[in-house]
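Memo to structure team: turn this sequence into structure tokens by end of day. - J.P.
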Amino acid sequence: MIENNRIIIIDDDEEHLAQLRQVFYNHGIGCKGFVYDGFNFPDHPMTGVRFAFFDVHLNQAGDINSTLKDAIGHYININNGPYVLVFWTNRVELISTFINFINRTDDEFRRKLKPLLITSIDKTDFLDSEKKLTEKLEEILSSDLVKCLIRFDESVLIAARQTLDRILNIIPFSDNWGESNQYNKDCQDVFSKIAEATYGLNQAKSNPDSAIKESIVPVFKHILLNNGDTYWADFLLPLKQAKKSGDLKFPEGFSVEKLNTIIHIDGLNIPPQNIYSRGAVCKFIEQDFDNNFTRLFNIKYTEWFGLTFPGITKEERQTAIPIAIEFSAACDYCQNKKRTNKYILGIMCPSQLLKNVKIEQKGDYSLYLPFSFEYNDKNWSIGLNLNYTFVITPARVLLSEPPLFLLSKELMDMIGHKYASHISRIGYTSF
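Reply from structure team:
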């Protein structure tokens, strides 16, 4: 079933709930309505909620604030994301009372279920005049932040729908009206060929869903970029006012490491992946590590570490995790060709460690990824030595499965380019 939780209405009066839902339906707006009785809730709090309408008086006998907090927590998941909270009431003072009630307790609800906007609507007026729905929603959307986040959310959904339509509309539909057998077969042929062209035959066969998703990203991007929306231009005042890059800074408390993880680290796709996947960041098996390292690279780990990260102390070295990153050629990986898996040697270390490297002693073979990221609630950096690549079959005799995570395709392309440039550099004699 397709879930659509964008608008939810919670009311303890079933007749009022039906009337309110009908107002939305009359405007072509889908919504979910729930009769509140204090006992029956969804099996799991919902995600994807963007507008939540709650009757303030859900429980005539109990405490208004406690009841509302409990109800919101049962209907909206703490990982829901930004939403607008609208109360049905003509008593505006109840909102400030509820806000103060929430802020008195430092709990997960207060920290994570923060609405972008809290407002109120007089239910009686709203039921009497459907026109007020449009007026109120426009008023809510007039807030710059709400307008950007909610409307961008809507733009993404529209672009996703149009992306598929673009491709479907160029497939001939030659069946008689009421039939679709030929069209169904043609769709299978078209999307099979798209998957194969994107991932290569063998890789597409093993993961056709990923192949199709990746193939339509350029179409989706084109539609989204050309939809004519300008609300970000109005909202991004710091960008408008900046004279140079240094004028733009992240706010205090913002985790750049978490942002880098979102952009560069694939930790969601690990179960189907293994240490032979391109971009796999793998730990070495700890048992007999020093001897295995010396035997494989003809150098002791401590000596290699000193060459790659000059100036790092023994104590700091012990906080680093030796890793190997699979960096097969993208075309070979996509076509799932039989190949020896190629790895590049490096470390994953606390982000502060690389800042202590003596840069003037660092060789041109050292590649430090230019960002820190979060992994298992700690901030890390990655440093590589481009002179130390290796092939071993099977890799599992040295590397732990599964990989820690995968690096993004764009990052792997950058590492591959840096490696190719390093090994193909031209030397010269000078006096």
